[in-house]
């Protein structure tokens, strides 16, 4: 794969540049895919006969390129995991469509209006919802983004801000949670890195993994920044313009409706207008209104977790659960044993089947709670299903092309080439920072945080452990040093940071589509916040911890740095508002 060299960077670069210039994501992704196909076609032709191969096959590279491109398109759509993501996305879209057409979400938001009186409260609710769905980033993005659009609209929160709140509490939360669908994958990469080092067999991978959570500075700071932005109401950069426009739109809407939101009828306050979906039959009880709005989401989450546990149990087996083994041995239950079991069960479960099962169950419950009393209302329910499916179709096209491009960057070994160029002999104290920046570059270029972790984790872990073994007293007994923990944590942190900035990232695409936001607008408004969190991560996190500053001090310094930065850079969108 080394034959492609710097050319391997061209396809993602073409897609990224065109996405910003043309604001046409589908065209940009297709162009990047075609560029990658041409490189693969010509490279394959040249490899058949060296320099002569380039000359003899040059005339055939266009049809060969189209063949490579079409094969990548077919491979991306026929992949089992991709099909499951498609299925879950469409099922969840249909469920959200039913909830929207019944008016249940709108009625629930009206009831919450007494507790949340402004945009800051609405943003905080959205951020908290992002924390609740902690076990999978896809589920987080689609559930919160799809169901909280009405909240954003009611409080004058722009769709760009909604997409930022959702995107910045999806992968960071899933990456920090000890019990999530990320755990098994991260553990496997970590174990590979430990096995390749001089300390193979002397470090417990899971305990190392748990201890490293505190050293994942960017995810912590990204979540902290979300709540700082939400609670202060301050924004900067392109996001401020989007918030000003959304606020003005909300005020115009309130004026046109002559105070409809503040002076609505008792019936609307109780349960919302009928909207053809039958919410009025719940108008006498607030509990029923919340049930019809949130029961499908709750069932979706419960089924998703249940399938993860069930399939994880089948995969792991009772004999491999540490807490059960401890009980059998007579040593009793242990905290880390219970945590290990929970992580093993969810992390080893079939997350894709869990997503599909959860989405299907949520749709069924939403349909059951809808009002089917009259023919007109039945038509409205089916219209809701159709609307929800239709809303998700553009995301399907973008995801399809994004996966195809990602497959080509894998064949071109884009990440491996970047790693080989940028990874060299370094002072071990700078390793956490360098790994974080390298992870960000790779994830930004390839559009995949998981691919970045697969490339970097074994290399980074084995490198830091071997470098520290040579220093007397450091890791000589297999201890997990702060530098080693920070280096491993920086892989995931850098991968999430690059993912947040990349317009070709699948989670970034999902966030923009699930929130009803223009994709390029989402990327351009989120990037300044991601860059701020990354800068604070380096200045107060990866650099100080490498030079011996305690992780707790680094964490507090990072949060203080974010508060000061937002205070200096940010302004509230409403003129004359009370300053923070």
Automatic annotation (TrEMBL):
Keyword Membrane applies: yes
Its membrane topology: Multi-pass membrane protein
Regions crossing the membrane: 6-22, 29-46, 58-77, 84-105, 125-143, 164-184, 217-233, 289-313, 352-372, 384-403, 435-465, 477-497, 531-564
Keywords: Cell membrane, Membrane, Transmembrane, Transmembrane helix
Localization per record: Cell membrane
Chain intervals with Basic and acidic residues compositional bias: 263-272
Domain named Na+/H+ antiporter NhaC-like C-terminal: residues: 179-260, 349-539
Pfam families on file: Na_H_antiporter
Positions of region (Disordered): 249-279
The keyword Transport is annotated on this UniProt entry: no
Leader sequence residues: none
Protein name per its UniProtKB record: Transporter, NhaC family
Source organism: Neorhodopirellula lusitana
